[in-house]
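Before relying on records like the one below, remember that each one covers exactly one chain. Contacts with other chains, cofactors or solvent are not represented anywhere in the record.
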Amino acid sequence: MAAVAMSADAPGGRADLPLVDIRAVDLRYGEGEHGMLALQGVDLQIRRGEFVALVGPSGCGKSTMLKLISGLRLASAGGVIVGGQEVDRPIKIVGMAFQAPALLPWRTSLSNALLPLEIVEPHCHTFRRDLPRHKERALALFQKVGLRNVADRFPWQLSGGMQQRVSLCRSLIHEPALLLLDEPFGALDAFTREELWDTLKVLQAERGFTVVLVTHDLTEATYLADTVHVFSQRPGRIVHSRQVPTDCRRSAQDRYTARFAEEVANLRRHVGHAQEVSA
């Protein structure tokens, strides 16, 4: 679950407005009519503190949505507003995590986790002065995600699950308002994956950050998300949205109920239909 921090200004914005407001967005890779239309006419509003999952067929533009929200790519048409400002460059209120941990092999677990504070404003200007406080915060995060006695270990000394936990800490160390996750648990074994689901739920409940998760795992989407959006085949657009009932995601035991199985089956039907939908 590789994590990076965005690097340009984006204030938090007004609390009564959506944190993410996407209106009639198209995104095309390449120039002119020969370019590939990846997204078309996408509208998406995400409330502060909301956990949103994006699901759909492979290649439908889910990961592209994360690039739009973070400012790593700009829309070809329409508008993207995050934190009350139009996104025209990478934004610093975002933490990102991916499927591969991509920890720097020459840095210890602790120094990997601290990396965003070295490069993100305003922390980078006072990083050395505030290093003791930053280390204390990082070690507290390590405890939260179940990492003990690994601060001085290098990535090659850690299991895959431990590397993912370090990466999650790295994505949260600068206290982002918005966490973007691109299939972060896909490469893990089932037991570790489910442990990290609950870790993420606890961290979000405590810290109140907003989450956008791209996943192919419909159980994961149903258990973690307040709202699930289904994308069509490319060019991607949202063809179904569903608020997940609270009693499907209060605790791990809820995943074994008939209600939960019904929610996952319903979502699977909509994803299956989305595979047949084209512009």
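The helical segments are 62-70, 109-119, 131-144, 160-172, 190-207, 218-224, 258-274.
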